[in-house]
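Example for tutorial group B:
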């Protein structure tokens, strides 16, 4: 089967890019013929390249766009009258926020004749609030346990930071760093030697500067450490495996939210207890009470209580660690690819 992907990028340091890269790679492993259109090449100027893109779509059996806007719109518009089935996978923000702008009628038009899949129950709920009774299939992202079970490199930098809690994710508001840092400020008063390591791109942004200002005001410069994103996966694996627990407490702000969070699976595969937020895609990525605890959004006091509870309770910490390693096994790429190929086959035959 010839599948053409319409995506933003294949950048593995970006959540959407990581999802797209892994999905494309695993489809190719099972023998599917996959072509990819990205914003860094032919989709950079979609209207100038309209007929080039159309020719590629014409030679495909099925078109798969990642996110409703703009990729689902491009796929739907450029493939008009080609009679090619279109699948759109909604990740989160870029499939919901457009409905609350001038793009709303165009986004609704995209959904008229396509098969919509989503990566979390929360993303499904947000879309159903806009268009009730829409046929939506939930297929959570897969995870490569093979790499995450490999050896980690020795790193003196990591040893010098221990013991620490860890966050991984771009330094942007919806990731909830204002809350996790506020939670650490509270927890730090009860855990004398605990540090906080944050790995994410955007260290020079205004948001990051705001975070660092709060840290300075609370005299925690020697206990909170920012590490620029872009480190290789083996080094990242080292940071995961040496952490005490993983915390990322995303918030929803102006229809921007965490659609799923591959980092939660990375943390689980590393055997970490996880602290996340209700009202986000983390509800599908973390099992509350099993391998971590979900806390209310914008409630640093609740998150701080959980940090202290897990750090100070060896039995609870060990339970979450063991359960995380079991939980992540539910997200094999074999299952994910089987779900997508079933959809592809059904729509190609129907077409």
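The residue assignment follows.
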């Amino acid at each position: 089967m010839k599948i053409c992907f319409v995506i933003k990028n294949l950048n593995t340091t970006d959540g959407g890019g990581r999802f797209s890269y892994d999905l494309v790679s695993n489809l190719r492993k099972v023998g599917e013929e996959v072509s990819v259109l990205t914003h860094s090449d032919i989709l950079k100027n979609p209207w100038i390249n309209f007929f080039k893109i159309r020719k590629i779509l014409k030679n495909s059996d099925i078109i798969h766009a990642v996110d409703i806007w703009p990729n689902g719109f491009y796929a739907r518009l450029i493939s008009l009258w080609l009679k090619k089935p279109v699948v759109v996978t909604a990740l989160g923000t870029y499939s919901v926020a457009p409905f609350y702008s001038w793009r709303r009628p165009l986004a609704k038009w995209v959904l008229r004749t396509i098969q919509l899949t989503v990566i979390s129950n929360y993303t499904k709920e947000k879309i159903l609030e806009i268009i009730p009774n829409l046929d939506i299939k939930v297929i959570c992202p897969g995870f490569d346990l093979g790499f995450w079970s490999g050896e980690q490199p020795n790193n003196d930098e990591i040893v010098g930071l221990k013991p620490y809690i860890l966050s991984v994710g771009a330094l942007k508001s919806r990731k909830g760093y204002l809350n996790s840092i506020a939670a650490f400020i509270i927890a730090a008063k009860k855990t004398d030697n605990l540090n906080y390591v944050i790995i994410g791109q955007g260290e020079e942004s205004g948001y990051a500067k705001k975070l660092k200002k709060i840290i300075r005001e609370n005299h925690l410069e020697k206990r909170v450490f920012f590490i620029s994103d872009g480190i290789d996966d083996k080094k990242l694996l080292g940071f995961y495996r040496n952490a005490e627990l993983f915390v990322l407490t995303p918030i929803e702000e102006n229809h921007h939210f965490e659609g799923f969070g591959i980092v939660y699976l990375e943390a689980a595969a590393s055997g970490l207890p996880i602290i996340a937020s209700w009202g986000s895609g983390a509800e599908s990525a973390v099992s509350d009470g099993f391998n971590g605890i979900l806390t209310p959004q914008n409630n640093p006091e609740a998150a701080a209580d959980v940090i202290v509870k897990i750090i100070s309770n060896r039995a609870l910490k060990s339970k979450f660690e063991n359960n995380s390693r079991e939980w992540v096994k539910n997200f094999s790429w074999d299952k994910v690819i089987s779900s997508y190929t079933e959809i592809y086959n059904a729509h190609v035959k129907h077409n």
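The CA atoms of residues 132 and 213 lie 44 Å apart. Compare this with the pattern of hydrophobic and polar residues in the output above.
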